[in-house]
Fold this sequence. Notes:
5-stranded antiparallel β-sheet; Alpha-Beta Plaits; 4-stranded antiparallel β-sheet; alpha+beta; Ubiquitin-like (UB roll); elongated
Amino acid sequence: xxxxxxxxxxxxxxxxxxxxxxxxxxxxxxxxDGRCVRVVLPVWKLKEFAALCEQxxxxxxxxxxxxxxxxxxxxxxxxxxxxxxxxxxVLVWLSxxxxxxxxxxxxxxxxxxxxxxxxxxxxRVGRLKRRVSTDELKDALALAVPGLAHAAARFEGSILVIDxxxxxxxxxxxxxxxxSDIVAAQSGIIVRISAESGTPQVTAGxxxxxxxxxxxxxxxxxxxxTRLCRAQGEIIARVFVRGxxxxxxxxxxxxxxxxxxxxxxxxxxxxxxxVADAQDFDxxxxxxxxxxxxxxxxxxxxxxxxxxxxxxxxxxRLLADARSQAQGAAEKIAKLSCxxxxxxxxxxxxYSMIDDEFVYATVVxxxxxxxxxRGMPKAQIEP
Length: 383
């Protein structure tokens, strides 16, 4: 059970001495050229020999394996292939009957209560679908989350979809005498505000901070006093998001020199043999093509590795190109904070230099969205 190996590197005499010192019996030692030597080694000594080559920076490549070694590898590959096929079949069968994702739609501010209800009902990723009744889950959601006007559950393959429809902001009245405000979910400039119940605290054109009260949960009564209510309305504001990025003026590019070498290997399920060898470059791009042997009705292929020599070229970017790249990166970062489908109404870009090496870009985007969210209930106000 022997392997024929080729070792590439410098000072190969040291390889032979070190192998002898470690008790590695190398046979049929043959020098191919000044940087390559071919040896025959028992297969059970391969790991020790590979560690020795790695220690001194030598490269090793298998040229030929004995008949017993080839048969053992073939048997191992076939066993692994059979086990992989069986594993895939089992995984497909299991995945088709399990929940792999839970999507909650249109829950709004009730999302936390919906998730808590699902947890109490034992609905989670990885549970068998047949153990989850969509009808029972729908009834449980309706009882556990009073703020929902409608709830439905359905399976889409391995995805459990929870479709929730709650009342509009402020539409669900609480216990008599309780009130709550509508506050700003984020900072911005008010574009328009419409209050159906409650008292507006801001006007169009006013800048607001996150958490600021927009509609107070109280109303005037006919007797000139006030009473608590659940604020309800719509507040549209212009919101601003920012993105920052920098780009270096020094660019490093990898280019091909045009020098190409090819390594050709004949392959079959049982054996592979290099018929045209080529030495690797210090820096290279490798492309591999597998070709059928024309006119040969056997499972034999020709594997062609094309080694293209490359060099790293450093060049100075144009200031305009660096600005364009920095702006694109900063704008992409800013858009991550925008809601899906938001229309960008305005954009501001500012540039600066850092240590005469980096171009720094700041991009600010403006869009409009509903910023009202439910605040904490207010204390009882005396008339």
